[in-house]
Amino acid sequence: MISHMGHKADVEHTGAGRGTITFRSGACSLASSQRELVLIAAAVDLDSLIGVQDVITRHLLRFATQEEIRVDWTDPGSGDALEIVAPAVDDYLRAHCTPAGELLTELAETTREATGRAAGMQVTADEGALLEMLVRLSGARRAIEIGVFTGYSSLCIARALPADGYLLACDVSSEWTSIARPYWRRAGVDDRIDLRIGPALDTLRALPEEPAFDFAFIDADKGNYPRYYEEIVPRLASGGLLVLDNVFLGGRVLDPAFQDDDHQAMRRVNKALSRDGRLDVVMLPVRDGVTLARKR
Ligand SMILES: C[S@@+](CC[C@H](N)C(=O)[O-])C[C@H]1O[C@@H](n2cnc3c(N)ncnc32)[C@H](O)[C@@H]1O
To answer: Do 38 and 96 have their domain in common?
Structure first.
């Protein structure tokens, strides 16, 4: 399997039944014994860690045609959770937002069942409610989202748009986004959502450079945040709102020990946004950090 992954990543055999597979933003070491294979994955952030684990899991399951295997990942020693708000206050605030409702709650549950640990990428109910509130308050009609996953945040955005509203939803994964469709349909918003599968940067760059959107949400690969921001701002109408998720990267944006591409990209975009004369910017201590940027 290690050799096979050489098409997708840097691989190294480090001994009998041992090796490492290195991806752009993470790595996995493998050590086999007679009964089991011990995997240790590490990555620059939780999303990347989940990505590494997902690729490894899928390859293992594909290779294990002769035998039944199970791939279990235990929780990382330190996750992305940043405790900005004391846990008791956090519980209290979650309990005092408008409840997510049956459909979103079911989508969150389906996502957990279908994607396992990757479900941690989904926006939480309170962040979803914030997105919905922002779309309604801004009166947006045309929105764009970078990073759909199983469609939770898309649903929050789409249902806050008017009936003739439009959401361009961008993601690379047909597998994860296929979970979204039935929920969008049941919410009666699937006709407002234009799902484009492919690298979001290509989708963005193919759009005319005119201010066609009133709302944008970035929640995808962190290394591309500066590029997404550069492409989106010219396409945002005056008064339009750009929202960026995970701007703290678990607090590591403050830690000079983290110098990989993703962390540098996030620092760069945070700095550029705060100095951008076209925008009014507020960074909120919501979950992993949410920035609101309103185009003047
Ligand atoms: C954090 S998840 C999005 C979560 C989603 N907003 C939600 O609330 O459920 C990030 C998503 O970005 C997608 N993604 C990663 N790299 C991408 C790229 N280059 N272009 C488009 N989507 C990408 C992944 O497939 C994943 O679904």
So the answer is: no
What percentage of the chain's residues is helix, strand, coil (to nearest 5)? 45, 25, 35
Q: Is 68 exposed, middle or buried (0-12, 13-18, 19+ CB in 10 A)?
A: exposed
Nearest CA-CA partner of 163 in 183, 182, 190, 138: 190
**Do the domain assignments include residue 76?**
no
Tally of residues, the chain: 296
Beta carbon of 25 within 6 Å of any ligand 1 atom? no
Backbone region of residue 197 per phi and psi (left: phi > 0; alpha: psi in -120 to 50; beta: other values): beta
Q: How does pLDDT run across 108-148, given as a tens digit for each residue? A: 999 999 999 899 999 999 999 999 999 999 999 999 999 99
Record the pTM.
Answer: 0.79
How far from each other are the two terminal CA atoms of the chain, in whole angstroms? 53
Ligand 1 pocket check: which of 153, 175, 221 to mutate, most ligand atoms within 8 Å of Cβ? 221
157 close to 141: Cβ distance less than 8 angstroms: no
Residues 140 and 283 in one domain: yes
Instruction: Quote the domain boundaries for residue 58.
Output: 4-63
Which tokens go with 204?
Answer: 């963005």
Ligand 1 centre distance from Cα of residue 148 (Å)? 5
Q: Does the C-beta of 32 come closer than 6 Å to ligand 1?
A: no
Q: Which atom belonging to ligand 1 lies closest to the Cα atom of 123?
A: 8
